Amino acid sequence: KSKFRNDTEYKEGAGSLKTWARAQGFYVYRGKRLITAGSWLGLQGFTKSHETDLARIQLDISNTQDEEWMLDVKKSTVKIPRKYRDVLKRIAKQTRDEARKVRLYRGKVSRRENPGDYQFVWSVDKNRQNVARYRINRSHPVIESLISGKSAEEIDGIEQILRMIEETVPTQNIILEEMKNPDSVPVPFEDMEQQNIILMLKTTIDALNLNSLSPLERRVRLLSMEPFSEYEKLVDDIISGVIQ
Q: Is 24 among the domain residues?
């Protein structure tokens, strides 16, 4: 279920979530006194989004560096010296990447343990020997729309294709790759051009006849299914008309 009760709440957003997102960034201390809290300190290209809302970096400067960090008279704002910008950019990028991974992992674990109305593309079945088999979720709205209205013969053909995909999942290769690169958690379609993701979203909206729903209901449906849950901003931009 959506955390918003109506379209007005959806547009206004949840205050606590906004506050949490605003709190990301550098926390600059001078002599154990907090000067700046939750700021990317003007680093170009670093904006605050819910994807990186867990990112926090503590930065300590001494009371002999006031001039270097352009600390104002009130000692409440700072400016990153040019010689530190590149290294702090690198640290900030790494921290934001880790924040994205944690958020993605927590969200997926939580949803898999308590799926509710959330629809994954893949499900895991275990046999009596506790061997896991990966299956394409036939209840996923996109899969349902693919099968809907087809003849028995056509459905059988689609089913054969789905089973072939399921039986040839390169499980061992995936495990080996995870062991070699444990930190490389790809996001669905991260290598795909944004326009193609937008096209896929629009195609899904049309296929599921989601335009007949209210904006809030449309949003809930799209964000309750994998992989569109990873693209909340794109979903919002399409629904609000920012993206035509």
A: yes
